Amino acid sequence: MFEIKTYPEFSWSLSRHKTLMHCARQYAHQYYTSHNGWLKNAEPLSRHAYRLKNLTNLEMFFGSIVHDLIENVIDNYLNTGWIPPEDELRGRIRTSLNEGFLDSTRRMEQWKQKPKKTTMFHEIYYGSSNQLPEVKVEKIKGRMQTTAGHFLNSRTMQELAYNENIEFLESEKFRILYVGRLKVFVVLDLLYKDTARDKWIIADWKTGKKSEEDPYQLALYALYLLENYEVDNLEDIIIRNEYLLEGEAVEHQLDHVTLEKVQELIGSSVERMTEYLESPVDNQPLPLEEFPQTTDENACRFCNFYELCFP
After folding, report:
1. 305, 26 contact by CB (below 8 A)
2. Is residue 58 within 8 Å of 121, Cβ to Cβ?
3. Does the keyword Cell membrane apply (predicted)?
């Protein structure tokens, strides 16, 4: 049964940690001010912060569309054996992008009422017109042309389609692992097992440019697998980044030193988060003024909560 709580439950994720390291004020709005902002009787500030929390930008929206599409294609393939052609996938991506644009430019009031179910682009909300920056539009058009084909030809999709020794396990869901008594959130794009090689493969779809992978994110994937499945050796886990812009796959294997380091990071990060709590028992935060703003004003322009700091 859903229970309305005055303060949110405390949990940890790598994105939460990064938000605090970037700006404590943004962290406060993201995880505390916006809490219960979806309720009809919510305080105006909570409702406002909750709306802003649900802003997205063109690159993030494109990434979420592609991830949802991939999940749908794989799920449908496992049930029917059919994979849609590249042109159809591009068409579905284009349709979703257009819907997001229409939401952002014509459904402002609907977004204010139901911000989680309506799309609002940061570029439109904080922009001076109902037009997206042309540079970004062209960039996304280019990504749309290459992403679908690279997905269909990816190493992961080829294995799922043509390797009879593949055992599908999980896809695209928030998962929970426990480090001691602490709840840690992890999102796995795709998890399956190659029974012939006795290897566990975690595939992570990337829709942006290739960058140095965060070893802590990889370690969280491995910790989840070790906690929830009977994995004999850490060496049996393969974490594969599928870069859909470049059409390349990069595989990683972790060692126990990295796993220890991520657990140390979680511990020190939780200590810092606790410093911003009035009452750690019920996760009651300090007053908002105790969460300092970043000094990087250029970064502020891209923050969802910009207007709360600069009315």
Report:
1. yes
2. yes
3. no
Which residues does residue 206 pair with via DSSP β-bridges, in sequence order?
A: 243
Quick one: how many helices (H) and strands (E) in the chain? Answer: 13, 7
- The three-state secondary structure class of 193 is strand
What's at 194, amino acid-wise? D
Note down the domain range covering 254.
159-265
Question: What tens digit of pLDDT does each residue of 247-277 get?
Answer: 999 999 889 999 999 999 999 999 999 999 9
Rounded Cα distance, 292 and 7, in Å: 20
Query: Which pair of tokens denotes residue 54?
Result: 């649900």
- Residue 202's DSSP bridge partners are 191, 239
228 shares its domain with 139: no
Q: Are 269 and 20 in contact (CB under 8 A)?
A: yes
3-state secondary structure of 286: coil
Q: Mark whether 209 and 295 lie in a shared domain.
A: no
Integer CA distances (angstroms), 246 to 42, 73, 128, 260, in order? 45, 20, 34, 32
Residue 85 lies in a domain: yes
3-state secondary structure of 248: strand
pLDDT at position 23 is 98
Total structural domains in the chain? Answer: 2
Tell me: the pLDDT tens digits for 272-311?
Answer: 999 999 999 999 999 999 999 999 989 999 999 999 999 8
Whole-structure pTM over 0.85, yes or no? yes
Residue with tokens 């004003």: 297
- DSSP, collapsed to helix, strand or coil, labels residue 304 as coil
Judged against a pLDDT cut of 60, whether residue 1 lies above it is answered with no
274 in a structural domain? no
| pLDDT per position as a tens digit, 140-153 | 999 999 999 999 99
What is the reported pLDDT for 213? 66
